[in-house]
Amino acid sequence: MHPWRQPSVAVLLATCNSGSLIEPQLRSLRENRTPFTLHWLDDHSTDGTPELVRRLAEQLRLPHREWHCPARLGVPASFFELLESVAADAYLFCDHDDIWQPGKIDATIAALAARPQAPALCFSEPLIFAGNDPAGARPYFEVIGVSSEAAQALPRAFVLNPAVGNTVGLTSALRDIYLTHREIARAHAVMHDWWLYLIARACGVVTLMRDVPTSLYRQHARNVFGVGSRRRRRTPRRIWRDEQNLRRLIARQAEGFLLAAPTLGSAEALEVLLRSARWTSECHHRRSIARLLEQARHRALPLPLKRLGWSALVSLLSDA
């Protein structure tokens, strides 16, 4: 195994009507020593985002390449499109509405360089902030009420994703595994980061980078999946609807994982994940108390406790 001398690094950025948010993110990318290329795909914005990104990239002297798709893709498909299109040694997912702390790219590449030929994924704990003011940003695991250790429990991988996409880096070897089942991923994945995390846990190396520069993870009304105070104000009716939707999404993702499993080798971790995937693939159906207790015994239910309570109640009373 040979270490990287100067790896090719691809920062994958998807934009859509990002004009009011994108400039702080692009400026933050410059605060790194590691050479990289910004690969970005605009998902048919109507607010002038492409022109703004082009102008800022030139002004900031960001090496960049623009990608196009004939129809709107949404998330996660826009990130999958970039991952499939770009050849590089290492990849970082970049959301249009966040801000990266200085040195984030450097820290990610240093972590991946420890296993350059392995199917490896690394991530850090983002800092959550609301609106336009990152002052007072709070650690992600503190906000969601789960320890990093509990969040990474292997049987819980299908109900909780600790690897927030704006902090994730991965090697080309992990991307190669993704490419063998990309059609399954596009049809079944909840999010690009979650799917790559599952694949890496099954047959690769996953590292939580501690005490490194990370992402300032912005919360606003248009987050696809948000966290924090905005979610805590949900009404019971909204919570019920969200839980039903999540049950359908994670069941579909688990079904996809079971389809992809033959391409993932036979690592010991895969057996644990397969058992959890079988349980989760049925979670859109009404569950019995005995079934929920069995999953709880194997740490395959979601956290924190408030979320677990709602999830169990919804599962006991109805199909999704």
Brief synopsis:
The protein has 320 residues and is an alpha/beta fold. It is 43% helix and 15% strand.
Counted beta strands: 11
CA distance, first residue to last residue = 47 Å
Please give the CATH architecture of the largest domain.
Alpha-Beta Complex
Output the helix-strand order.
EHEHEHEEHEEEHHEHHHEEHHHHH
The amount of helix comes to 40-55%
Number of DSSP helical runs: 14
Q: What name does the CATH topology of the largest domain carry?
A: Spore Coat Polysaccharide Biosynthesis Protein SpsA, Chain A
Describe this structure in words.
The chain is of the alpha/beta class. It folds into two domains: 9-219, Spore Coat Polysaccharide Biosynthesis Protein SpsA, Chain A (Alpha-Beta Complex), CATH 3.90.550; 229-317, no CATH class. Helix content is 43%, strand content 15%. It has 14 helices and eleven strands. It has helices at residues 22-29, 49-59, 77-85, 104-112, 140-144, 148-151, 172-179, 182-188, 192-203, 229-232, 236-260, 268-280, 289-297, 305-317, and strands at 9-15, 37-42, 64-67, 90-95, 99-100, 120-124, 127-130, 138-139, 169-171, 205-209, 215-219. The strands form two sheets. Strands 3-2-1-4-9-6-10 form a seven-stranded mixed sheet, sandwiched between helices. Strands 5-11-7-8 form a four-stranded mixed sheet. A hairpin with a 7-residue loop joins β7 and β8 (138-139). α1 packs parallel to α2 (49-59). The longest helix has 25 residues, at 236-260. The model has no long low-confidence stretch (mean pLDDT 92).
